[in-house]
Design goal:
Number of strands: 11
Structural class: alpha/beta
CATH topology of the largest domain: Rossmann fold
Largest sheet: 5 strands, parallel
Number of helices: 8
Family: Belongs to the STXBP/unc-18/SEC1 family.
Protein name: Vacuolar protein sorting-associated protein-like protein 2
Organism: Sarcoptes scabiei
GO biological process, one term: vesicle-mediated transport
Pfam family, one: Sec1
Order of helices and strands: HEHHEEHEHEEEEEHEHEH
Mean pLDDT: 91
CATH superfamily of the largest domain: Sec1/Munc18 (SM) protein, domain 1
CATH class of the largest domain: Alpha Beta
Amino acid sequence: MDLVCAIQLYINKMIEDAGPGIKTLLMDKETISFLSLVFAHSEMLKKEIYLFEAIENYYFSEESLKFVKCIVFVRPTEKNITCLMRELKHPRFGQYFLNFSNIISKTDIKALAQVDEFEVVKDVQEFYADYAAINPHTFSLNVKSCYQNHHWNSVAFQRINQGLISVCLSLTRCPLIRYQSNSILAKRLAEQIRQNIAKENDLFDMENSNESQSILLILDRKLDPITPLLIKWTYQAMLHELLTITNNRI
């Protein structure tokens, strides 16, 4: 259960599926941070990735780059789908390999297929790498605020739900879900995750008969005032306390 290794395996698979040749990597702001945590720039150059672009910074160019293969690695958000449709309407590269970091709806796939008039899309896959792997056993969803008037912030709720589903799928685990019974927020999140697992039953049909079943434990931080006051005596903890560490960067 190594989160860093899971992300690395996914990215290596994306690159292998694109085949040999000069390649570019088209990502969004979040997937850029996911990648930078597990691979150095020099390592990507060795894999024939010579160009890195953000999908939000699209620009129309008449310059032909048809000899370059484009590996797309983005979150399946409404904004990213819109940007990707704009890219496919006026493709700059010869081939596109679409990789989404989480489950994408059939409606979005159909919309992308309709704008692919030049038939440049060669492959569409889901790779469940929708989280920042800080350490082998620690991840972050980079959600800054969850509460809004003592209720879930709707955007944060959706992001946390998607992120936890992605972690479970990347680790090939269909967990038992336990939550803090006196927390309405924890209960709502647990119920939503349980519904999503039932909805995507085919993806969670995993053979865990030889292993003890994993447990997803959901706790409410506002009901635990002591833990935030505890500081580990390590350089990492002290640096984060004084300077703040975000995605392993100060």
